[in-house]
Every structure is written in structure tokens, then in C-alpha cells.
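New to this. Please check this protein:
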Amino acid sequence: MTNRPAMMRRPNDKAPVREEQAAAQEPAAPRQRSADKGREHAGRRSAPRKRAPSSAAEGTRPMTVIPREQHAISRKDISENALKVLYRLNKSGFEAYLVGGGVRDLLLGKKPKDFDITTNATPEQVRKLFRNCRLVGRRFRLAHVMFGPEIIEVATFRGHHEQNPEHDKNSSQQAQSGMLLRDNIFGSIEEDAQRRDFTINSLYYGVADFALRDYVGGLRDLQQGVIRLIGDPETRYREDPVRMLRAVRFAAKLDMTISEETAEPLPRLASLLHDIPPARLFEESLKLLQSGYGFQTYLKLCEYQLFQPLFPLIARQFTPNHNTPMERILVQVLKNTDHRLQNNMRVNPAFLFAAMLWYPLLEHAQKLAQESGLAYYDAFALAMNDVLDEQCRSLAIPKRITTLVRDIWQLQLRLSRRQGKRAHKLMEHPKFRAAYDLLALRAQVENNPEMQRLAEWWAEFQDATPASQKTMLGSLGEDPAPRRSRQRRPRRRAPRKEGA
């Protein structure tokens, strides 16, 4: 595990003057920052039962206040729009705190992707304070305060269900499996802290005193590099099975260890992911595999048996040695994706899915061709439909992406046909570059000399001058399978009528 940045300021360190002054006015001129917030904050019910001794159980730890001079969070690192929301809520008489991943990342010395706020104001009260606010969600009622492309998500403190037994069923609803279908019961900040998912996401920063509040030992876990669920792990996973994916994602992203009691139920409860809507799992898959740490996430998904519910077609072909072309391309495409993201290069989920599913597609196409006697191209087309249909039952990959996946796959059959004008026409295809990258990846993992020569030819052809391209095409010789010219059938004449 890597060394972690200092999160606490030494008591004799001087705090910046700007932080010691409790500014009452709102900051001016908000900065524009984009944010795409999912369901990262959602209060959850934890049924009254015996807790695991080492988990952050309710009522086991008093609240700790870390004053400004003892932590490293500075307002200059916080979105001015988030500060504006915090100040206005405070001026209107409400409690308001920065919470969740934003606080966690600031303490780790990272730049937060977004900033979330929690308050004792109800969603309707928040909407009255901000004209640029809209309320979203039925399952978890939230207020989104809009600042151009930046959205500041404001959630009301969540309360315990047990204190509201006669509450309207529209405020709280739970499935037989234990999964929360709706949760809009509000409470205090202490209750809210207990109902967040992980201890490291349950740290509160306020602008009234610039102090940090810790109700569940989150700061200690952050310093020690531990991912720990709040409450009984099995109950919390049943309330929202996506928490299992979040535990793995945070462990990979932050280079942390999942605590023993948090990790133990993961393999047993992995099948609960089948109850999650495929559209939500697709969103989660992008967070898992396209955030710059996809390879490490993949290893942890496999370790805790969470990969199979997401990609059953791929998991079905895993081998004990993990050394088939399919397994090698999976590792390589994830490493390549991580490298591109870490170097601020663009990535396309269509290419990722095309590479991951290529060998299941190939196997199915060959099986169809052998069993049905279809021409290989026809069997390949049917196999594309079957593979994508089955994968979309687990992850609802949008049509705009599956269309591109099909293009990349179909071009694999055409890249070897370069004679005449074909090479230039192929290069004009919008997905040619992605198709070429997949060809090069296949050549690498299969260690196929013929395919490697083909990939090298295309690499040289793309950078060659027109004269050199003409020479390269001429050296290929004639098309081994030239297109047959169609002979026009003679028009059938109508029979002549007698007496005409």
C-alpha cells in the first residue's frame, strides 16, 4: 500500500488567515465546473440486529470534532458553487455540511470530481432558497442546485426507520430481499452518519467553524487505508447490492484494503446483483472499468466473485491458468484503458466492450457455422446478435454503443481484404482506427505471426505517402477472391396475342 498524505495538521501549525475568519457572506463569481452525480449518497435502513464487533456500528463511538488547525481541508480547494450553497443554507438558519467523496478526496490530497452537501433542510425548503434548484428522485428525494454545467447535490439528513413505524409508506419501502426501494425518512446528522455506506465517506466539513466532524471513525480508517461498511455488512449489502461494487471500486481507486468483516459476505451475496436493474449496472460498470484503475478493479471483482454477474459470457470461459487469448486480451485492454485515462487521453466504451466480448463472439460464430451449416459471415452476424443480447441482460448497454461495437467487429472480417480500392475505403470508415487497434491487440495476445504482419502492414499504410501506399498495394498482388461480375438476365417478353 502506498504512503498516504498527511491529513491532519500539527497543533502548532498556523492555519491560514482566510480559514480563521468565519465569513458570513457568500463567495462571489462562482467557478464553472462539470459534475455527473449518480446515486453515491443514499441513506439506508439498517435492521436492529447484532453487529459485527469490528464494524462501525451505531452508538459505539462518540462524535469527534477536528478543528481547522488540525486538518488539511482548505476552502480554496472547494468549488465556489458548493461554498455558495453552504453559506446560504447557514444564513437561512439550517445546518449544512460538505460530505462524502469530496471530503474524503480533499483529505487524501486528491481533486474531488464533485461536491455533495447534506443539511437538515428538507428538499422543499432547499428549493425555496435557490431558484436554480430542481428536485429529483423518488427512491431518494434530492435537491440539485444547478450552476451551469455544475450540479451541487443537496440531501437531507436521513433518519432511522424504527423511529417512524407509522410513517407514510410512500416515504419508505423495502423488498423481501432487504433491498430498499424507497427511503425518504429524514433525521439528524448523527443518524445520517450512521446510514451512509462506508466510514471514509461519513466525514462532515462545515463552513460555520471550518471543523471536521467524524461520527464513525472514518478519519482513522482513511489514515490506515481501510474500507469499512457502517453497520452490519450483510444487512447493508442486501439494502443496496451495488455497495458490493462500490467497496471493490474504492479499494482499487484509493489503494486500500477491504476490512475482513466487510469483505467476508461478498462472494456469498454476489448473486444479489441480479436484482439490480441492468441500466444501473451498466453505469456502474463504466465507473469500475473506465476510471483509470480498471485492471486493479477487475482483479478485485474476480477475487470476490463479483465479475460473473456483470459479464457471465466472459466468466464462463475463464480457465485455471488465466492464459487464454480471451483472458490475455481482457487484461491488456484494461491496462491500455488505464494508461490512456492516466494520460488524459479519450477512451470509448464501445472499444472496451468489443475487445472484452470478441472471443466469446468468435467461439459462438464458429459453433453456429459448424452446427447449422451457415456461411461463416452469416453465422458471424447471428452470433453478434446473440452475444450482445445475452450481455445486455446483465448490463443494459445502450444501442448507440452496441452499434459501434458491431462496426468494430464487422471490420475485423474486412481488414485482410486490402486489394484495389478496399484499403482506402476501409480507412474512411468512422470506426477504422478502433478496428485497427483491436486487430493489433488480437495479434499481440494470440502471438499469431500472420496477424502480426497484417497489423504491421496497416500501421505502415496509415502513415505512408500516397506513392508509397500505391507501391504497398501493388505488392499485394491480385485479389484472391475477386468479385464476380453480374450478368444481366434477359428481360422476359410477354406472349404475343393471337390475331394481333
Residues 10-54, 163-170 have pLDDT under 50 and may be disordered. Residues 70 and 94 are 25 Å apart (CA to CA). Residues 376-394 form the longest helix (19 residues). The domain at 61-160+181-224 is CATH 3.30.460.10 (Beta Polymerase; domain 2).
